[in-house]
Every structure is written in C-alpha cells, then in structure tokens.
Design a protein that fits this description.
Helix content: 40-55%
Strand order of the largest sheet: 1-4-5-8
Structural class: alpha+beta
Number of strands: 10
CATH topology of the largest domain: Butyryl-CoA Dehydrogenase, subunit A, domain 3
Shape: globular
Radius of gyration: 22 Å
Mean pLDDT: 95
Order of helices and strands: HHHHHHHHEEEEEEEEHEEHHHH
Number of domains: 3
Largest sheet: 4 strands, mixed
Distance between the termini: 42 Å
Strand content: 5-15%
Low-confidence stretches: 1-8
C-alpha cells in the first residue's frame, strides 16, 4: 500500500486575510451607502454620483489602475470580490460605480505611458472623472466587426463620424474610449481604438434611456459629428482595435459575472429569510418541498457561479489566455441569476410582485446580465469556437 502524504497543491478555495478585509470593507460600504437608497434611486433613476465619490475615496473605484498612476493596482480577483458585494446591494448603482474599470481597460492594456499618466492618473484618479466604453452601435451589438463609426486620418489628426448606443455612464462621462473603423474594407483588421474628450467639438450625448431595470445606471446614445482628435489619442496601432476589444472582454466579463453572483446571493438570502417567516398550511413554507428545493437550487447555482467567476478572474490574473472560461462564468452566472430572481419572486408569491419587497427589483435588474458584455448566446458561440478549434 502506498503511503498518502498530504501536500499543498497550490489550489485554494478560501480568501486570504487581506482579501477578507477587502470583502468586509466592500460589504460594509454596501450596507451603509447602497442598500438604504437602492429602492429610491431605482424609482427615480438617480445617478449615484455621491456614492461613486465615496467609493473612490475608499479605494474601491478605479481599482484596476496601476499604482504607478495613482490607483491601487488591484488584481482581477480582488475586483470580483468587490463587484459581488456591491451588486448585492444594487446592480444599477454598482454598474455606475464600476464602469470606469471597463472604460479604462483599453488604455491600461494598450495605451502608452503618456496616455496612462494623463488619462488614468490625472483625469480618473486625481480629478475623479468618469470614462465610458463605446463599442455598441444601433446596427452592431453582438457583431462587433459590424460597427460603422469611421475614423479618417487627416494629417496629424483623425476625424471621427458615427454614433454609439446603450453606453453606460454616457451622460456623466468626461471622456470616452471609442472603437471606430480606420479601414472599412479590412473587416476586423480595420478597427482602431481612440480616446475622445467629451468637450471636443462635435460630441453630442443624447437623452438617457428609460430602462426596465438597473435604473440607477445611466445609459445613453453618443453621436460624433466631424470630431477631430489628435493622433496621440489613438490607443495602440491602427487595425488593432478588434483584438483589443476582445482582450477587454476577457478582463471585464469576470466582473460582470461577479455582479450577477451578487444578485444571486441577494435573491437567495431574501428567499431564505422570507421562507422562514411565511407559513402555509401551518408550517414555514421552506418545509414544503416545492419551495425548499427552489431555494436549494439557488444555493447550488450561487456557489457554482461564484467558483466559475473566481476561476475566470484567477486565469486573467495569471495571464492565461483562454476565452472560454470567462464565457463559462458570464453565461452561467447570468443565466443562474435570472433563474434565481424568477424563483425568488415565486417564493414570495403575490408579495414578490410588489415593489414593497426587494425581489421585484431583482427580477427587473437581472435581465440585462444575459444581454450586455456579450449576450448569453454569444458566450455559447465563444465556447463552441474554443471547443472545436
């Protein structure tokens, strides 16, 4: 018989003490600053600017900006820890507060030192500004290559014409990271990324959309009419925009998955609390198998979603390029969060349909997770592509 010796494999499913402190800080912030105002901000579609600045002072905004540019240089794993906690309180507010971490990614991943020092350090960290990420267009959502916004070279400048739609924080952003076609005939090789200041002549931000859910998150259209920007505002080389956009998704999808995980946990905890108190036929409803099993499934799917999300964030942190793992996490967490919200309303019965109870808002907020940052269908396309390479 072979003696079995316990060895440390390098795999851990627990948080370090530092990570637990970060988690507690984010949880305490959510309890104090987000949960008390979530329903009111949702009802009135209030943009959480004050909450953003409080979170920035605490160090849980602009987390991914490296320390040399004034940020905290948080790892992708640390980002998902915070994302889950804040989304537990309100995914609309957490989306508004965390969108800089998407908008700044093209600069972090492909910007030069001058761009990083100015746009990340001076504009985002020092001045506390907002940045929006601009890819989606009215005729190009899932099909990123189909964007029509053009960037025409004019001497030492570019002339930008086109429009972007469903842009998060657009009404409040001070600058935008924008993807446009520099060579319309080159397919995915003809796309390039740029930084456009909001104050540039020709930039017009439309009226924000009135949405079903995540109403505290601002979403609007942006139009660029003969917007002239200097060549120094180009991110990376011409023609590299598509590859940069795909790399951004690998970095950003674990955070979106984490937000869906946070909503799942909220649905689970609200359901457990209610099912203990509510009685039917003389017994708490969780003791009825029809209800108890729904809640058990919520717990299973929450834990599985979180583990997939942690794996996706860990992979990015390790520099492992494997797009199917972020796709696993984003698709599964979004789909299971949707199921959790639907089941939570069912657990609450008629009360779940009323705005007086929190699960009504969860159901409205959750649907967008299956749509933005790549639909659940697109995630499956990515998975199929990677499996059958």
């Amino acid at each position: 018989m072979v003696d079995m010796v316990k060895t440390h494999t390098g795999v851990s499913f627990g948080l370090t003490e530092e990570q637990k402190m970060l988690q507690k800080m984010a949880r305490d912030f959510t309890t104090a600053e987000i949960i008390p105002v979530a329903a009111d901000f949702d009802e009135h579609a209030t943009f959480p600017e004050d909450i953003f600045h409080k979170a920035r002072e605490l160090g849980i905004v602009n987390m991914n900006i490296p320390a040399e540019y004034g940020g905290v240089g948080a790892s992708p794993f640390e980002e998902v820890i915070v994302a889950e906690e804040m989304a537990y309180g309100c995914t609309g507010i957490s989306t508004s507060v965390s969108t800089n971490a998407l908008g700044d990614l093209p600069i972090i991943l492909a910007g030069n030192e001058k761009q990083k020092a100015y746009w990340l350090g001076e504009r985002l960290v020092d001045k506390g500004e907002f940045v929006s990420y601009c890819v989606t267009e009215a005729g190009a959502g899932s099909n990123v290559v189909g964007i029509q916004t053009r960037a025409e070279k004019k001497g030492g400048s570019y002339l930008i014409n086109g429009s972007k739609i469903f842009i998060t924080n657009a009404s409040h952003a001070h600058f935008f990271t924008v993807f446009a076609k520099t060579n319309p005939d080159a397919g995915h090789r003809g796309m390039t990324a740029f930084i456009i200041d909001r104050n540039s002549p020709g930039v017009k931000v439309g009226k924000k959309f009135d949405k079903m859910g995540q109403r505290a998150s601002d979403t609007a259209e942006i139009v660029f009419e003969n917007v002239e920007i200097p060549e120094e505002n180009r991110i990376g080389e011409e023609g590299q925009g598509f590859y940069l956009a795909m790399k951004v998704f690998d970095y950003s999808r674990p955070g979106v998955a984490a937000a869906a995980v946070g909503l799942q946990r909220r649905a689970l905890e609200e359901s457990v609390k209610y099912a203990k108190q509510r009685e039917a036929f003389g017994t708490p409803i969780y003791q009825h198998q029809a209800i108890g099993h729904k809640i058990a499934d919520m717990a299973i799917n929450y834990e599985a979603s979180r583990l997939l999300t942690w794996q996706a964030a860990w992979q990015v942190e390790m520099g492992i390029v494997n797009s199917k793992v972020p796709a696993y996490a984003k698709a599964f967490a979004a789909d299971m969060a949707t199921k959790a919200a639907i089941d939570a309303v069912q657990v609450f019965g008629g009360y779940g349909f009323m705005k007086e109870y929190p699960v009504e808002k969860l159901l409205r907020d959750v649907k967008i997770f299956q749509i933005y940052e790549g639909t659940s269908e697109i995630q499956r396309n990515i998975i199929v592509r990677e499996l059958f390479k």
